Amino acid sequence: xxxxxxxxxxxxxxxxxxxxxxxxxxxxxxxxxxxxxxxxxxxxxxxxxxxxxxxxxxxxxxxxxxxxxxxxxxxxxxxxxxxxxxxxxxxxxxxxxxxxxxxxxxxxxxxxxxxxxxxxxxxxxxxxxxxxxxxxxxxxxxxxxxxxxxxxxxxxxxxxxxxxxxxxxxxxxxxxxxxxxxxxxxxxxxxxxxxxxxxxxxxxxxxxxxxxxxxxxxxxxxxxxxxxxxxxxxxxxxxxxxxxxxxxxxxxxxxxxxxxxxxxxxxxxxxxxxxxxxxxxxxxxxxxxxxxxxxxxxxxxxxxxxxxxxxxxxxxxxxxxxxxxxxxxxxxxxxxxxxxxxxxxxxxxxxxxxxxxxxxxxxxxxxxxxxxxxxxxxxxxxxxxxxxxxxxxxxxxxxxxxxxxxxxxx
Length: 410
Ligand code: C6P
Description:
Elements: H1 4-9, E1 17-18, E2 21-22, E3 24-25, H2 36-48, H3 59-78, E4 87-90, H4 93-105, E5 114-118, H5 127-136, E6 139-143, H6 153-161, E7 165-171, H7 183-192, E8 196-200, H8 212-215, E9 219-223, E10 234-238, H9 240-244, E11 256-259, E12 264-266, H10 280-296, H11 298-317, E13 322-325, E14 334-339, H12 344-353, E15 356-357, E16 359-361, H13 366-372, E17 377-381, H14 388-404
Parallel strand pairs: 3-15, 5-6, 5-7, 7-8, 8-9
Antiparallel strand pairs: 1-2, 4-10, 9-10, 11-12, 13-14, 14-17, 16-17
Helix pairs in contact: 2-10, 3-10, 4-5, 11-14, 12-14
């Protein structure tokens, strides 16, 4: 199993005090922290290897291009893709999902067609589909949740049986209720109905082994900053034949084949989708982050977070007046909750004064919060540097919160 005490030592951010307490970071679902190995790789790149990619032929340009393209190979291998060309670098999951919505869906769907999405989606995997529906006239079918926050698969099947569904877009793991979609089964069902699947893997790929060939998924979106890499880098995986049939949605430098005064042709995939100078240092950081995660082992990370979530569920449910959301198990390594009638911003502010960082708000999932019948929740999310001590700190912090707001009914 993972040696968390040793892992913590790799993260400089965790060695500081916040408001007089050692930092207890429980907000990796929003953005994870960076180990020294990733920071060093980026500093080394900028110190000795930086130039633009795919342009110059001098030594630094070739070093930078190699580093960038080697990351593409590494990402492909990390998610089990057969070819590096099926990986498009993006700013993150949001840009990856928009790329599919605008370059694939918007030109293929029309009135009478349907998209399936779900009640638990992050806005990044909902709003682009609303836009496609608005511009094409196709329908948007939203799968509801069971009482404990899993997807209603009967309803999913009923939508597929309508016979008009062209796209199914759903989260692999929910960033709020933590439920994990039975992706392989849902993908097989979608394919049987002739639909293409877009999997939002922002909360799964950083935390569990994911193999795109085993899932047979068509598109998959990931953010680097949730998997120990810096912000501004992420990727879209797409099946080659789908990517090759897509037009770019951003145009400009380096994505072209040949430019005439009046018209242009496009480069092959994935370059066609990477207009302009990309986030090269981001790719360098992502490469080092994947090395770090692979050294720990994705199976070990998944098991560690499963145990932590289980422990956290038990400890938090013992706190009087606390409401926990989502299924007990299986679940992703995060728990959203409310404490009596206290606004999550109040809870989070008091916790911060104890050095504990959680997220408070609607977590970019307003339709889901509407369904939960609350405006906001608190969310503690775990990663490779968290242990039971962090959860004990959270529970002790909640006791302080309740003490401070003792006049509020619980
Ligand atoms: N969720 C959270 O605190 P970006 O912002 O593009 O890196 O990721 C968007 C995104 C897409 N799908 C899911 C399931 C997500 O959780 C996120 C990001 C963060 O929950 C920030 S809102």
